[in-house]
Amino acid sequence: MSFRMVDFIVKKRDGGTHSREELEAFIRGYVADEIPDYQASAWCMAVYFQGMTPEETAHLTLAMAYSGETLDLHDVAPIVVDKHSSGGVGDKTSLAVGPIVAATGLPVGKMSGRGLAHTGGTLDKLESFRGFRAELSFEEFKRQLKEVGLVIAGATHDLAPADKKLYALRDVTGTVPSVPLIASSIMSKKIATGSDAIVLDVKVGKGAFMRTLEDARVLARLMVDIGTHLNRRMAAVLSDMNQPLGRAVGNALEVKEAIATLHGRGPADFTELVHTVAGEMIRLGGKAATREEARALVDKVIADGSAFRKFREFIVAQGGDPAQVDNPDLLPKARIVVPLESAAAGYVADIDALQVGLATMILGGGREKKGEPIDHAVGVVLHKKVGDRVDAGEPLCEVHANDEARLAEALERLRRAIVVTPEPVEGYPIVYEIIT
Ligand code: URA
């Protein structure tokens, strides 16, 4: 088949449907650097506006999954479980869920990413630990999976390289929030890493790429169908991202909150989500027959300390400093901590997750350009959540900063992001539904 990129773009621009061969030729050409970024961007934008059929999305996903090497983990573990979030603010779920599930005896092997747009990335959070190594070779990944039962590492050039390129391109071309592009990005990585059971945490709301429950449902259904078709055990949890998850936003601050949660002292919404996602992983992994049994197992490994011990073992295995795990006060700390006080008494009606995510980026907690260093210490800790009562002068949140000018800009944004009204307000549920 002769493939011309310009015809491929025009076809999608005009609402056409691509064949499997065309999608494979595009991915092959793009990974081989034969198709330039400007043409790939034009095509992503055409997909953003025209969408793709479920068949096209499945063909694209497979082409991306097999664009590099794929892992077969069955020689180290009979069943490997994994989770992936569609991206949110304050989303430290993997840090708590990974050790909990591993502590029940189910190996967790996870490829994670860095921050995307206003959302944080698991690898950036983990690098708050002195010495932590996120980039592992295949051999190291497998060895740790076998010996520790938990590994979280970055995607490599060899594994789903098509996603590595497209992810970075979409980040800077306004083409992230597209259902087929998110579905193929997430599912290609999951298929390439060879996990058997996959739980997707699909975020919904102001700080998520999917703003409505309807859009999130479409994305979740599509990914569950793609995985099921490839004999993966799948579940998708639709969870709230109108306000940040938990109370901490910012790398080291989130690590501290995840550790507190492993000790059974986490915020209510985050603890509930951790129970749901870990519970689904345990159920799909065959360690529990029902949701109730799975939740009881989660409670057990938190209460007996084995989840925390697994976290410590995993951090140490990847070179992190155990002293910081045992005493999270040794994690990077910001020089300036200031409260943002409520101007009036009332009820918290909104804490716009997108704006809190952007404020954290302004403080230096995320990247504005590819490859920039980040400040692990900075961020925001919420003292109130939507629905809470607040008195005039009471802190709504505290801001952790290392730079006065950045602090002023972040405070300005947070003042607009947090809305207090005189009338009582209902809080958000954390889990909307589970799709299997
Ligand atoms: N997470 C991913 O891995 N890819 C996306 O496109 C969005 C969130």
Task: Show the helix and strand layout.
Elements: H1 5-13, H2 20-31, H3 37-50, H4 54-65, E1 81-85, H5 93-103, E2 108-112, H6 122-126, H7 138-147, E3 150-154, H8 161-171, H9 179-192, E4 197-204, H10 213-229, E5 233-240, E6 248-249, H11 251-262, H12 268-284, H13 291-303, H14 306-317, H15 322-326, E7 336-341, E8 346-351, H16 353-365, E9 379-382, E10 389-390, E11 395-401, H17 404-417, E12 418-421, E13 431-435
Between the first and last Cα atoms, what is the distance in angstroms? 38 Å
Please outline the major beta sheet.
4 strands, mixed
Please give the order of strands in the largest beta sheet.
Answer: 1-4-5-13
Reading the helices and strands in chain order gives HHHHEHEHHEHHEHEEHHHHHEEHEEEHEE
Architecture of the largest domain, according to CATH?
3-Layer(aba) Sandwich
Q: Would you state the CATH class of the largest domain?
A: Alpha Beta
Listed once per kind, the bound small molecules are: uracil
Q: Please work out how many helical segments DSSP would assign.
A: 17
Helix content: 40-55%
Parts with pLDDT < 50 across at least 5 consecutive residues? none
Q: Proportion of β residues?
A: 15-25%
Morphology call: globular
The secondary-structure class comes to alpha/beta
CATH superfamily of the largest domain: Nucleoside phosphorylase/phosphoribosyltransferase catalytic domain
Integer average pLDDT:
94
How is this structure best summarized?
The protein has 17 helices and 13 strands.
Structural summary, described in words:
By secondary structure, the chain is an alpha/beta fold. It folds into three domains: 5-51, Transferase, Pyrimidine Nucleoside Phosphorylase, Chain C (Transferase, Pyrimidine Nucleoside Phosphorylase, Chain A, domain 3, Up-down Bundle), CATH 1.20.970.10; 81-326, Pyrimidine Nucleoside Phosphorylase, Chain A, domain 2, CATH 3.40.1030; 332-421, Alpha-Beta Complex (Aldehyde Oxidoreductase, domain 3), CATH 3.90.1170. It has 17 helices and 13 strands. The strands form four sheets. Strands 1-4-5-13 form a four-stranded mixed sheet, with helices on both faces. β4, α10 and β5 (233-240) form a beta-alpha-beta unit. It starts with a helix and ends with a strand. The mean pLDDT is 94. The structure holds uracil. Uracil is lined by residues 86-87, 113, 116, 167, 176, 182, 185-186. Uracil (URA) binds at residues 86-87, 113, 116, 167, 176, 182, 185-186.
